[in-house]
Amino acid sequence: MSAASPLLRLQDITHLYGGGKGRTLLALDGVSLEVGHGDFLSLLGPSGCGKSTLLRLIAGLETPSSGAIAWPDGKPVPGDIGFVFQEPTLMPWASVADNVRLPLRLTRRRAMPADIQAVLDLVGLRDFAGAYPRELSGGMKMRAALARALVTRPRLLLLDEPFAALDEITRFKLNEDLLRIWRERRCTVIFVTHSVFEAAFLSQRVAVMSPRPGRILAEEAIDLPALRVSELRTNAAYSAICRKLSDRLASGMGETP
User: Fold this and answer.
1) Taking CA 181 as the corner, what is the angle to CA 177 and CA 185, rounded to the nearest 5 degrees?
2) Residue range 22-75, pLDDT digits in tens
3) What's the CATH number where 239 sits?
4) Which secondary-structure segment (H or E) carries 207?
């Protein structure tokens, strides 16, 4: 995390959802976290622990029931936050270029063809500007969704398990490409995953969350080379970090590691 003021600070965030017959569901309970400028932070936890809810709160799509989200450098304006969801959510009737152009239209920014092409080049879709979602593989659809999130040059990029449904080879390649994009764009990334292997490979820091209601059980700095390549996945240090994260998760779930 940056030694300067953080990009955002979560202060004792609690969030409840209403249930049937007057019941409520406590999704998050007392979550406090700081995210520095340029961080790559992963939120790691079991399904249903509130990871996605936390992203939605940060994005301003929902409001916390209690607690505060502070932006020391000023609240984000439209286009400052890019969001990649679990599904690509592309408009099926629009070309890849038109899908990517959408955030520029919504934020009333001028959409230059060169800007669209540049972000397609960045995500590896150079020759697919005129293609339609039905013509793309699952990995290519997610690349288009990533390009759409990046086209406004956001300060903060939020990714909610974007690669979970992809095959292992495609997922590994997208992991490496995401790290390249992070280095090139110098944005801050918060990445949600339930994979210890993905969290360890991608992150500078991992926040391990408990089962619902979600709490931060531990924060782990990932002491690996800044340049992550595929060979790292067989490295002993990487394996040790994965084991440590697994132990943290198991301990939080009341299991014996």
Assistant:
1) 180
2) 678 899 999 999 999 999 999 999 988 999 999 999 999 999 999 999 999 899
3) 3.40.50.300
4) strand 205-209
